[in-house]
Design brief:
The chain has 386 residues and is α/β, with parallel strands linked by helices. The chain folds into 3 domains: 145 residues, Rossmann fold; 121 residues, no CATH class; 71 residues, Orthogonal Bundle (Rna Polymerase Sigma Factor, Chain: A), CATH 1.10.1740. Helices cover 48% and strands 15% of the residues. The chain is built from 17 helices and 11 strands. The strands form 2 sheets. It has a 7-stranded parallel beta sheet, with helices on both faces. Strands 9-8-10-11 form a 4-stranded mixed beta sheet, with helices on one face. The longest helix has 23 residues. The chain is globular, with a radius of gyration of 20 Å. The chain binds NADP nicotinamide-adenine-dinucleotide phosphate. The site of NADP nicotinamide-adenine-dinucleotide phosphate has 27 residues, from helix 1, helix 6 and helix 10.
Length: 386
């Protein structure tokens, strides 16, 4: 039996790595649906090549272009939020959730409510709606499998273990391209420098998040929801080689770690085949060539995003949504050249100081709070740019 796969965000970095693995194992997998935001050409090409039955573009204005491109094929072209939800909740057995940002939240929730196995790369969905998503997963019998390399590492370390005997989780962080830079040096870095990650090849947004270390902050919140531990039992350790992807310490003092190459196809393959394992053509980790593993404490003075994420997790209420929304807006502004690198964390901090609302009770309330926080961050950025 082949496993039917839908890829939300098929044209992105995680989406393409997923396609690469699936196309190398046609006896195991079948693509049923692919989605993109606006990259019609890539989406259509992938849909045709893989034999997908549904191709969805988020931007409704691009539907005529997608229809035209797919005319003469059996692939159904669709667009907009309802079509994204249809791709998520349709015939797939496993949904790869690889849309970037809070835009992925509604489709992920549609997959969860349809009781799917969801391979979750879209960390922003869990950061903004973690409690609601876990509750929906329980009610609808959905399974969440972590794709983020750190959370996937922890998931692997916990397999077969007594979850009640976990003392703490240790998330590793590469430290990003500015690990050794001073605050003065970081003040004037360019978007090109910020997206040039030393170890991983990723989309622009997560690359900037790695440079500010907000990525690790979002992962802290993600780990809290996925593994049910309070923030104080989730530590962050900088590990520049990105070989140890994360660790679990148990009550008896044992630590288990998962190691592997810095290639997202490894955790993606793990969730695609789970609970089995599949062969991949990924280049193997050469321990002798790697030679050493270094660990150091993160510097929350140079990387305030870490402190802000911890603060948002502790504050709860609307704080994780505000943290995420302000960060998305500020990262986009930085990539567009409108603000400086340190303004990203400064904008997030000001937004957290400005907005404090009760915790949302529904996805609609999450989306409304997200929009409100974006408005707050937009105003702050306009002031900075003036
Ligand atoms: N890349 C990694 O190595 C990595 C590792 C761990 C976790 N993650 C997480 O995985 C997610 C995806 O990251 P990525 O690096 O693959 O991002 P990416 O390369 O920027 O790709 C994003 C994907 O989402 C689509 N998309 C963007 N905005 C959308 C919207 N408003 N509505 C619907 N679709 C939209 C894009 O379509 P278009 O191409 O048409 O714009 C693209 O297919 C993120 O949440 C990230 O944190 C990534």
């Amino acid at each position: 039996m082949t496993r039917k796969i839908a890829i939300l965000g098929a044209t992105g970095s995680i989406g393409r790595s997923t396609l690469d693995l699936i196309e190398a194992a046609p006896d195991r997998f079948e693509i049923v649906a692919l989605t993109a935001a606006s990259n019609v050409e890539q989406l259509a090409e992938d849909a045709e090549r893989t034999g997908a039955r549904l191709a969805v573009v988020a931007d409704e204005a691009l539907l005529p272009q997608l229809r035209e491109r797919l005319s003469g094929t059996n692939i159904h072209a669709a667009a907009g939020p309802a079509a994204l939800a249809e791709a998520a909740a349709g015939e797939a057995d496993l949904v790869m959730a690889a849309i970037v940002g809070c835009a992925g939240l509604a489709p992920v929730m549609a997959a969860v409510q349809a009781g799917k196995t969801v391979a979750l790369a879209n960390k922003e969905a869990l950061v903004t709606a973690g409690a609601l998503m876990l509750d929906a997963a329980t009610r609808h019998g959905a399974t969440l499998l972590p794709v983020d390399s750190e959370h996937n590492a922890i998931f692997q370390c916990l397999a077969g273990q007594d979850a009640h005997r976990v003392a703490r989780l240790i998330l590793t962080a590469s430290g990003g391209p500015f690990r050794c830079s001073t605050a003065e040096e970081m003040a004037n870095v360019t978007p090109a420098e910020a997206v040039a990650h030393p170890n991983w090849s990723m989309g622009a947004k997560i690359s900037v998040d790695s440079a500010t270390m907000m990525n690790k902050g979002l992962e802290l919140i993600e780990a809290h929801y996925l593994f049910g531990l309070p923030g104080e039992r989730i530590n962050i350790v900088v590990h520049p080689q990105s070989i140890v992807h994360s660790l679990v310490e148990f009550a008896d003092g044992s630590m288990l770690a998962q190691l592997g190459p810095s290639d997202m196809r490894v955790p993606i393959a793990h969730v695609l085949a789970w609970p089995e394992r599949m062969a991949t053509h990924v280049e193997r980790l050469d321990l002798l060539a790697a030679a050493r593993l270094d660990f150091e404490a993160p510097d929350e003075l140079r990387f305030p995003a870490l402190r802000l994420a911890r603060q948002a997790l502790d504050a709860a209420r609307s704080a994780p949504i505000v943290l995420n929304a302000a960060n998305e807006v500020a990262v986009a502004a930085f990539l567009a050249g409108a603000i400086h690198f340190p303004d990203i964390a400064a904008t997030v901090e000001r937004a957290l100081d400005t907005m404090d609302e009760p915790a949302p009770n529904s996805i609609e309330e999450v989306i409304a709070l997200d929009l409100q926080a974006r408005g707050v961050a937009d105003r702050m950025i306009a002031e900075l740019a003036a």
